[in-house]
Amino acid sequence: MTEQSGQTPTLDNLSTESRVFAPADDFSAAANVGAAAYEQGTADREAFWAEQADRLSWDTRWERVLDWDDAPFAKWFVGGKLNVAANCVDRHVEAGLGDRVAIHWVGEPGDSRAITYADLLREVSKTANALTELGLEAGDRVAIQMPMIPEAIFSMLACARLGLVHSVVFGGFSSAALRSRIDDAQARLLITSDGQYRRGAPAPMKDNTDEATAHTPSIEHVLVVRRTGGEVKWTDGRDLWWHEVVDRQAETHEAQPFDAEHPLFILYTSGTTGNPKGILHTSGGYLTQASYTHHAVFDLKPETDVYWCTADIGWITGHSYIVYGPLSNGVTQVVYEGTPNTPHEGRHWEIIQEHKVSIYYTAPTLIRTFMKWGADIPARYDLSSLRVLGSVGEPINPEAWIWYRENVGANRTPIVDTWWQTETGAIMISPLPGVTHTKPGSAQRALPGISAKVVDDQGVEVGKGGGGYLVLDQPWPSMLRGIWGDNDRYRDTYWSRFADLGFYFAGDGAKYDADGDIWLLGRVDDVMNVSGHRISTTEVESALVSHPTVAEAAVVGASDPTTGQGIVAFVILRGSAKPDDSTVKTLRDHVATEIGPIAKPRQVLIVNELPKTRSGKIMRRLLRDVAENRAIGDTTTLADSAVMDLISTGLKSTT
Ligand code: WT7
Predict the structure, then answer these.
(1) Is the CB of 395 under 6 A from ligand 1?
(2) How far does residue 634's CA lie from ligand 1's centre (Å)?
(3) Complex ipTM above 0.95?
């Protein structure tokens, strides 16, 4: 292992990656969490989490930290009572921090709003009073489909305050997707907006929710925020304007405590088959871990930091690391409504410069997009306020990690690569920025109080250098409590694979390196088997992206008569690179050199676009259809449905 900091190392890929970046001494000295936390978490896991739960305000203290008697159905902080919203808002105002800005909201067209904790308390109280007036009671479900506007956060917190269970549905989801989620949860209220700003123009939103609510008998009212002022259809008696119902409410509201296991929200996530699963999270354990991990992983100093997580509230990252984790810690944060290239490709850097953002948390897919746009763009802005960078959502290839560190972090800021899932509720595996010697592309180690293992088919832990399945072998406070309305599916999906051992099966492949650090290798359904060798699509993609001409790559295993599966790579070249006769051979050879001849792609196809879901995940299933010369399957969850046509036409014209 080579220790480096400061200098530019040579680019490399995941399989041979050996660079290590030590935290700076002054960063470590001032860090919120030091190395001792790992020992505390291992010595007495329950005592450790009880200490973290004490970072919150409880109305009634718990009697028992963990009840795992009815595994896999967990109860944390049994008998404890708290109000989640009061923990995120009221207690900061009571502590005299009412004037601190909670949210620097930045609208896409350039409008903005600074919301202090005192403002937030007023807005959440008014919203809670309005929802009470509409007859909603603790335990009722509320669907929310909204853009990234402050009212979305007020709505979530008002639900939490009243013990209502929110189900946020990403703004880009179709009416059919919204409808099935409303039906599954039997939501009584839908909160939405007339429209939203995307890519420089207002786009309708209520049209979509109208289509959904035409067929959802459980919905009694639709509460509509006016954002764009566009024309909307109106159903009298059902539809209500936010400004007419919420604005006139009393500005105070007394929060009631709820049981630690009171449901907080449902969030739907797609599985490998069937309908989306309604992942259920509850109150005390969820907030404890969301809050602690935000404090520990980002080293948040609420008095001085300005934090920005670029996720949408429609995803778990938005729930845990825009709303509940940060606000419970009294953060000052940026919330941005729009797209990263509106009105120009430097928008994020401009926002960081203007608000002096010190902690920036984003996704590898966006980092690779920034790479494609060029390093000269961030170079035009003052990014010196940044001190911690985060990554989430998929394995980050070392190439992108290094680019992020050099071009955004000035070769100085630690990068935390955070592994977790909708189901885990909060970060599980990640470096700690003041402790960990980070390695590009590795999430490295389970956080204090968390236990993760890499095991083989039989559930036996593999040794250093070995690969297998990622499992969580101990319950954790923010774990999902089930799938809404489907206990059997909950058991089957997560707990049946290693039933005798009681492990949670994450669905991800992983390996230990020679130091015992964990490297995530992508979903196990994306792992290929070529001539009996297990090769991760991520590993091949990483190798491809480490070639200077490649901007982005997606790899699938296509069935092959001789080798079981053959590797097919779809590659987007960098803007400046022009393909010629030797490009394909060069790239195939490059992979063979980087990983080994067994990983050499059978085919490399040069394309202009890759099919992605709205959350940025590459839809390999569709690429597999192309690679296997099949009719292309269901494309309804694609962010841009024209992409598959583009790829097919592009390929025809080049072959
Ligand atoms: C899946 C969960 C967690 C919030 C966003 C995604 C992949 C997530 C990482 C990471 C490697 C990662 C896994 C996981 N994933 N973060 N840092 N390194 N893989 O939530 O939609 O529930 O997806 O995302 O495959 O299982 P999600």
Answers:
(1) yes
(2) 23
(3) yes
